[in-house]
Specification:
By secondary structure, the protein is α+β, with helices and mostly antiparallel strands. Helices cover 37% and strands 35% of the residues. It contains 4 helices and 9 strands. The strands form 4 sheets. A 3-stranded antiparallel sheet has the order 7-8-9. A two-stranded antiparallel ribbon has the order 1-2.
Length: 178
């Protein structure tokens, strides 16, 4: 039996409440709340109590890891599905105009900051975050956009490119030194 107390906000008094909570006893005789679900962790505890060999319990632990990975993948997919349903407007604030042998070319495009400003709040709403991993190797600059859930599931999108002469000076300040 565990004791609980109820606080009456009208009178400012505490009243004891008797509650019967299920308890499980482990091999060390400490008391923990009983696990009532059918998750792999509850099956491992039950197996330990029944004297199941360690190699069998290790297999159950592997099952637990696979189960958690599957649950995390499902959560990531659900979060991405919800994010993709968000109405997001990405503004094209950068205007480019230049002359070519065929005439003038002119267009507007979104800068990276325009994209991140638009998607950041919608990602956060669905417990997703993004980050950048930038590196330079073999004459290429590679930028990975990494989406991550609060459960730690990550998905990368990679974009390698050769540096442009003017951009190389700017990017070289952002890259880690070898």
């Amino acid at each position: 039996m565990n004791d609980a107390v109820e606080f009456d906000t009208d009178t400012g008094t505490h009243t004891p409440i008797r509650q019967q909570l299920p308890m499980a006893t482990t091999a060390t005789t400490s008391h923990v709340p009983a696990i009532s679900d059918r998750s792999p962790s509850s099956m491992m505890i039950a197996a330990f109590k029944e004297g199941i060999p360690l190699d069998q319990i290790e297999k159950m632990m592997d099952l637990q890891k696979r189960w958690e990975a599957g649950e995390a993948k499902k959560a990531f997919t659900a979060a991405m599905t919800a994010f993709k349903a968000e109405p997001i407007t990405i503004l094209k604030r950068k205007h480019v105009s230049f002359d070519t042998s065929k005439g003038n070319t002119s267009y507007s495009h979104a800068k990276l900051s325009d994209v991140t400003d638009a998607i950041g709040p919608a990602l956060a709403k669905h417990v997703l975050t993004y980050d950048w991993e930038v590196r330079q190797e073999n004459g290429l600059i590679t930028v990975d956009c990494v989406l991550t859930t609060c459960a730690g599931t990550r998905r990368k999108s990679r974009c390698p490119a050769r540096p442009m002469p003017t951009a190389a000076r700017t990017l070289s300040r952002l890259l880690p030194r070898p």
